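Revision sheet: structure tokens.
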Amino acid sequence: MILKFMGIKYGIMLILVLFIISLAGIEAYQGSLFYYAIFDLSWLAILFTALCCSQTYVIFYIQIMLFLGFWAKLMACLILKVPFIEPTGYWSSNFSSASWDQVLWVSSLAACAILAVNTLFFFCTKNKTKKANKSSAPLWYTKHHNLAWSLILFLGFLTNAINIFFHISITGLRPQLVLPFHLNAVIVWIMALAIPLLMAAFLGWDQSLGQKKNRFYSVCLLAFITSLSSLSRSVYLFWTLPYIIIVLSNLNFSLTKALVWHHRKLIFSFIGYALLSLILVSMGRSYYFAQYHSPSFIGQTSKQLSQLKKLFIGRWVGVEGVMATTAFPQSGWNFFKKGIMEKPSVGDIGIYTREVLKPNNYKNTKKTMFSSLPGLVSILNYTNSPSVVFWGMASICFLLCCFELIIYLALNNKFLLAQLGLILGYWCVSGLNIPYLGVVNLIECLFIPVLLCLINLCYNWLMKFWTKSPIRLKHQELPE
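Predicted:
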């Protein structure tokens, strides 16, 4: 199940180029060259293993997201003087070089933990993942695939319509309607987890390439609509990126002009939806938030466009969280226990934004709600213990890899694994703002593969029972 996006030779060349670039940041770094070198080499090793020998989809996404959140962000700050976008709480430019060294040391240990898990998982699974890559569709999907797609598209359009009118889940806005029996959470679960995972599983089970292409248009359309309804620029990318990853890993980045031209309609549609969603979501966010924060629509639009330029590096969770938790004066085991045991309430922005980032610029109102995400590395750093960061990161990453392996052996669906890996990777990197809620979200995510396995078992049992049913046998014995 090794993912290989480029050859070892090209991977080494890329790392050498980035290493040479990173040397330009030494002069601006305020701490020890030793910790800078460890940080640099460990995160470049993360990128190399991500592109050349990731053992699972989830470990691939974790490595890429954290590389952008740690190495790319720090180098952009040191070399290009790009300011950190996320607040850093009690951290200030006057902090000592020892504080910077502590930040880079904790970050490096997190990288080493991921490298250790990737290596360990290789030796643990090298003889257990030799299944055929081609997934075999279950009987119920083979017979009812058109109905399955019709239902999932109807459900997607319905939940998005509800979200547009009642603001159940819109980035930065509080819900306008709180439904009983936690139905708000059910709608969000359907939109954010159930639909993309089910569509990925269905695409993986489609045997015809033409059928896959036609239904990928439906995925792009629904991802585009969901991106607009939730005012999230990342939704479209997160729904469609796993399929691009599958294609690139299969081709080993050897795209030819003939191949691109043959699939030009699909490629142009994908890119068109992506650009349109970025533009329209940015305009929508400007419109909504200008009503609550600024009378100048033009000024707000300019601010949104400025944020759009920083989207590909600035949005990733990483080094700012470690800076904030390192500087937080109450860090320790007591605060760590308080953070992981905290239960969420309606409109709660989380203990990280509320206490660790207490000196921040968030101005929430009755209509809006903004918070910052700490990420798993920063939550583990609540303890102020580098060893907890290493072992905690290693344990959780290994657990997620085990989940992916079990689902791989149970369903053997590469498309589902790619989508699930992205969701689990994002959950690990930035989905643990409130740990209690993060555990609930993990269970909700894993429920879909379990549900698919149960459907397969129940349908096969019913068909087996029906073929042995006395009524069916009697009908078969009747003369024509």
